[in-house]
Specification:
- The N and C termini lie far apart (about 30 Å).
- The strands form 2 sheets. The protein has a two-stranded parallel sheet. It has a two-stranded parallel sheet with strand order 3-4.
- The chain is of the alpha/beta class and about 70 residues long.
- It contains 2 helices and 4 strands; from the N terminus they run ββαβαβ.
- The chain is globular and about 40 Å long.
Length: about 70
């Protein structure tokens, strides 16, 4: 684990915490994969930011609330 992203929580001891995905990716650099474990309303935006950068991403379900998101 190279970083966590959470705008509110303290994170994990010994792992850098960032308040947004963009900040984490700029500081950490290339990553092998990411896990999106956020409230469902944030899944699409979080996963999109990672997938647009070509990062393999595991997303908790649901990916989005409807097919037209």
């Amino acid at each position: 684990m190279v970083a966590t992203v959470d705008p509110v929580a303290d994170g994990v001891d010994g792992v850098p915490r960032h308040s947004c995905i963009q900040d984490a990716l700029e500081e950490v650099g290339p990553v092998d994969a990411a896990v999106v474990a956020t409230p469902a309303a944030d899944h699409l935006s979080s996963a999109s930011a990672l997938l647009e950068r070509g990062i393999p991403t595991l997303v908790e379900k649901p990916m989005a609330f409807d097919l037209h998101a």
